[in-house]
């Protein structure tokens, strides 16, 4: 599994509109992306923390193909309304190493 995160810095007064637009973009552009297993938007618990977009792909090649796709370009176009809410971002990528799943009975 290959994981890509994007830390998105959004001022608190823009958070609600950012979340709504981000959610709409996720539902519009992500279904059917080859190799995409899951996409999650994590909300910060403190105003000085960023949102985190977390995307899990089968492989790095699937991620790279998505980044090069028309769907990615459309989802990230400035006129979609999300970019004006973000004051900075940082993309990080990871390979899956280990899982520990605990289920309470």
TrEMBL record:
It comes from Umezawaea tangerina. InterPro entries: ABM_dom, Dimeric_a/b-barrel, Heme-degrading_MO. SUPFAM superfamilies: Dimeric alpha+beta barrel (SSF54909). The keyword Oxidoreductase applies. PROSITE patterns: ABM. Coiled coil: none annotated. Pfam families: ABM. One of its GO terms (molecular function) is monooxygenase activity. Keywords: Monooxygenase, Oxidoreductase. Residues 2-94 form the ABM domain. It comes from the Bacteria. This is Heme-degrading monooxygenase HmoA.
């Amino acid at each position: 599994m290959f994981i890509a995160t994007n830390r998105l810095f959004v001022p608190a007064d823009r958070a609600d509109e950012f979340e709504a637009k981000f959610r709409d973009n996720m539902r519009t552009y992500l279904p059917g992306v080859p190799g995409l297993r899951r996409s999650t938007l994590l909300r910060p618990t403190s105003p000085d923390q960023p949102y985190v977009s977390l995307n899990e792909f089968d492989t790095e090649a699937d991620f790279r193909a998505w980044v090069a796709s028309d769907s990615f370009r459309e989802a990230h176009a400035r006129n979609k309304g999300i970019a004006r809410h973000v004051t900075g971002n940082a993309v990080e990528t990871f390979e899956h190493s280990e899982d520990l799943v605990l289920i309470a009975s």
